[in-house]
């Protein structure tokens, strides 16, 4: 049975099918009507969803490819297996979010807040995380090949088996002794005197 809601004089269904595409208006209606929001496996490619509230939502395997999510709040959201390739995430909040196996290839995460986020097995190759806050994040087995982590805060982050090959770590903050020398030596633009310890 479908649940229908009245919004601005128009009825909308709250039940969604896997892979279903939604419009910006439908996303806003769903967020307004249900909390936490459930968009599991939904196609939200290329939408403008800036500054929306997805806190605590179920967004597993949702496709946000090239979606504009600047300033959105995903605090505590479940994003396992979601696709955010080339997404615009400048200043987006992901504190305490579950982001295992997430695809963030070439994503724009400048100044994003990922404090205590679980990014285990995340794919972030060529992602821009300059000035991002990854303090206390779980980055175990994550892939940061050729990513920009300049001036990022990695204090307290779990970097076990994290791939930083070719990553720009200039000015990054991290716990002394956490990053292995072999990974730093391969990092692009690495200069030990410029990394804040």
In short:
With 197 residues, the protein is low in regular secondary structure. It contains 2 helices and 2 strands.
Strand content: under 5%
Unreliable residue stretches: 1-14, 191-197
N- to C-terminal separation?
57 Å
Inertia-based shape: elongated
Number of helical regions: 2
Radius of gyration: 18 Å
Biggest sheet features: 2 strands, antiparallel
Strand order of the largest sheet: 1-2
Mean pLDDT: 85
- Count every beta strand, where a strand is a DSSP E run of 2 or more residues: 2
Q: Can you walk through the features of this model?
A:
The structure is a single chain. With 197 residues, this protein is low in regular secondary structure. It is 8% helix and 4% strand. The chain has two helices and two strands. The protein has helices at 24-33, 181-186; strands spanning 4-7, 10-13. Strands 1-2 form a two-stranded antiparallel ribbon. Strand 1 (4-7) and strand 2 (10-13) form a beta hairpin. The protein is elongated. The protein starts with a strand and ends in an 11-residue tail after the last helix. The model is unreliable at 1-14 and 191-197 (pLDDT under 50).
């Amino acid at each position: 049975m479908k649940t229908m809601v009245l919004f601005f004089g128009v009825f909308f269904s709250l039940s969604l099918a896997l892979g279903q595409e939604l419009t910006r208006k439908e996303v806003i209606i769903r967020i307004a009507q249900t909390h936490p929001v459930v968009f599991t496996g939904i196609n939200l490619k290329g939408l403008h969803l800036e500054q929306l509230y997805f806190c605590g939502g179920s967004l597993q395997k949702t496709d946000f490819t090239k979606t504009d999510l600047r300033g959105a709040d995903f605090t505590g959201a479940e994003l396992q297996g979601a696709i955010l390739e080339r997404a615009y995430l400048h200043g987006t909040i992901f504190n305490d979010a579950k982001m295992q196996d997430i695809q963030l290839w070439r994503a724009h995460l400048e100044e994003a807040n990922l404090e205590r986020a679980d990014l285990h097995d995340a794919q972030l190759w060529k992602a821009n995380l300059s000035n991002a806050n990854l303090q206390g994040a779980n980055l175990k087995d994550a892939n940061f090949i050729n990513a920009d982590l300049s001036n990022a805060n990695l204090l307290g982050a779990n970097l076990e088996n994290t791939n930083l090959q070719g990553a720009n770590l200039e000015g990054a903050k991290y716990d002394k002794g956490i990053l292995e020398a072999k990974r730093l030596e391969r990092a692009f633009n690495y200069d030990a005197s410029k990394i804040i310890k």
